[in-house]
Amino acid sequence: MVTMKAEAKGKVLIIRLTGELDHYYSEQVKEFTEQQIDSHQTQHLIWNLSGLPFMDSSGLGVILGRYRQVNEMGGSVTVCGLNTQVKRLFQLSGLFKIMYVDQTEEEALGRLEESSCKTQ
Amino acid sequence: MQNTMTISFNALGENEAFSRVAVASFAAKLNPTVDDLAELKTAVSEAVTNAIIHGYDSNPAGIVYISATIEDGEIDVIVRDEGRGIGNIEEAKEPLFTTKPEMERAGMGFTIMEHFTDLLEVESSTSSGTVVRFKKRLAGKRVNCV
Predict the structure, then answer these.
(1) How many domains are there within chain A?
(2) How do beta strands A44-55 and A12-21 pair?
(3) Chain A residues bordering chain B (beta-carbon distance below 8 Å)
(4) 3-state DSSP call for residue B7?
(5) Mean pLDDT over residues B1-22, rounded?
(6) CA within 20 to 30 Å of B2's CA: A104, A116, B50, B76, which one?
(7) Is the CB of B115 less than 8 angstroms away from the CB of A88?
(8) What is the ipTM score, two decimals?
(9) What distance separates the 2 farthest-apart alpha carbons in chain A?
């Protein structure tokens, strides 16, 4: 079972997932996140995965798919709160090369805020 | 002594969680580390997902068979389907290779199974389906801190 929560802070959309993300739940997460990105004029996306004890390659597929969506609009994707197993999946798939990794949501938001100040 | 269990279930996505938890529960008697158990669950999840979406093309009438054997601190898992089979196993094992990009498949299933287990064997035939077998040492790896 996966529960999904979204919160928009300006142009940053935070998606918080709890539960086990596998093939069965990946379609629901995809639809929910796509809809949230569209309805909030999202530029940057933060995935808070601190409530996710398990994920497999189906989850990587959803996260990579949303990266493409956000990247096309010139935005960035950050993942935070990864446990050891999820972190290894990201390392194996090379996703850390294209996404930011932070310990917490606050750290991710702080970094995005700082980079937007610098570009203004 | 050798200890074996077998389960079979319909190729339904909702059975993925059941199957990995069943194998993990069976393996728990070896007193594995948390990380090893998570890796075992991931490998089972990848093999079962492949059987469902690739072997049976998400047709729930298909049956996925799992057998797991514990012997000498090691678990030996066989995930089998009687689906369409894999035409080219070496190609399927390539990182990021997928036949279903429209489903947002990452193409990382076999790479993950290879990294998260000690030995991976794949046999497949377009007439009889696919057998994925992996072994993982679980006992005797725990580090006890005094």
Answers:
(1) 1
(2) parallel
(3) 20, 22-24, 26, 30, 53-54, 56-58, 60-62, 64-65, 83-85, 88-89, 92-93
(4) strand
(5) 97
(6) B50
(7) yes
(8) 0.89
(9) 43
